[in-house]
Amino acid sequence: xxxxxxxxxxxxxxxxxxxLRALYRVWVLSAGAVALATAAVAQQAxxxxxxxVQNHEVRRSIRxxxxxxxxxxxxxxxxxxxxxxxVDAQEGDRVREGQPLARLRTIWFELQLQEAxxxxxxxxxxxxxxESKLRRAHELFEDEVxxxxxxxxxxxxxxxxxxxxxQTTAEIAQLNLALDRCTIRxxxxxxxxxxxxxxxxxxxxxxxxxxxxELDSLEVRVEVPERLFAQLSPGAAAEVxxxxxxxxxxxxxxxxxxxxxxxxxxxxxxxxxxxxxxGRIGIGMLAQVSLAAGETYAALVVPKDxxxxxxxxxxxxxxxxxxxVEPVPVRGGQALGEWVVVDGPVAPGDRVVxxxxxxxxxxxxxxxxxxxxxxx
Length: 376
What we know:
The chain is an alpha+beta fold.
């Protein structure tokens, strides 16, 4: 019957046995082919990069809570008074330096500019006439036709129109500047977080338009106990872990050590700078900050790229003498830039896979190439 499998078909009694034996032979051959193909894949050496486990002197670290802050936060204000005719950004928008945030009505400044340009033309014409009269007055004075007072009058008139020309030129420059300032622009790359004006409102000179924060580079504020203050200095490495982002770890460094303790807790604030190029980290997030402090000790370190997380477990793929890999369970510890302290059954000189370890399985043959990392 159409649609049934071969095993469900009905054969005459004399043909049933041979047919079943033929089907069995086909199944055995197919299974054998699959097994051979799987074995061939398993035996194929995967190209990987490896780095050797190192024994390294490490300074003990402390772990302290902190809070993410913006390095630059600003209330963007208007430099001129005016009526809002457009708001070009909204709360939450990422804006670039120089991008318009809002615009003011410009007609009043444009009319003033037209008037000033007219006065400038008059001043230029009057100045040309005064200069001509002055040259004539000098000639007549040398010929003793006019008196000193008449020459002084010509000099005074020329100076007056020169002053009028300079004054009007400066006024036009101020009006052009005011026209440009009618477009309120972002002073830096960042995010518009709070809108302080809206369409149709009047803004006074210095009135707030938007609150902005910079997100590309952030600071984490940490309160450090008094006993550790002398051991910390700007530039020292730090690592920031953000639980709200799934335990995301970000490398940073101490940017500022503020030498004034809180009078109640006797702790000193420091600021750790971290990068935030993709904007995932938000202002106000809680963080755990690891800082190097205290005595040094010998530890086994591997590049962070060598540590593979499988569920709640961390493993390394070690390359054995037969150029096959075996998973080794470890426990990650203190971070040291691109390296991390590990605790587990590994030894200095062991080759651990740092590139291509995402899809490895125990016993898989590999073709390794050394990848060097600069020690911290």
